[in-house]
Amino acid sequence: xxxxxxxxxxxxxxxxxxxxxxxxxxxxxxxxxxxxxxxxxxxxxxxxxxxxxxxxxxxxxxxxxxxxxxxxxxxxxxxxxxxxxxxxxxxxxxxxxxxxxxxxxxxxxxxxxxxxxxxxxxxxxxxxxxxxxxxxxxx
Length: 139
What we know:
It is rod-shaped, with a radius of gyration of 49 Å. It contains four helices and no strands. By secondary structure, it is mostly helical. The mean pLDDT is 80.
């Protein structure tokens, strides 16, 4: 009970000091003290009456720390996916180039001639032996 009574007197004194400081700076206080025009400081108990504020600040700080760690993990994960995709792309480009060379080799005249001789049993005709019929397009 004594602590509440002391706190009430202290609040009243601070409030009276503040109200008195708004007027004449040398005006005597109700208890006979002079007011010097200073604004009263916050009481320790007034700031400690709000533990939710401290708890909220701690939760916010923990949330920001977790978000920072999660963001770093996501950055690492995505970077490894990008590197894996680039390696896969390079492998596919190399395979495409090999296939292009293979197609060019298969469609070369030397390869076609080789297949015609070996698989189909065709022979190379000497020039001048093949006589084509004359077609008259003038009609």
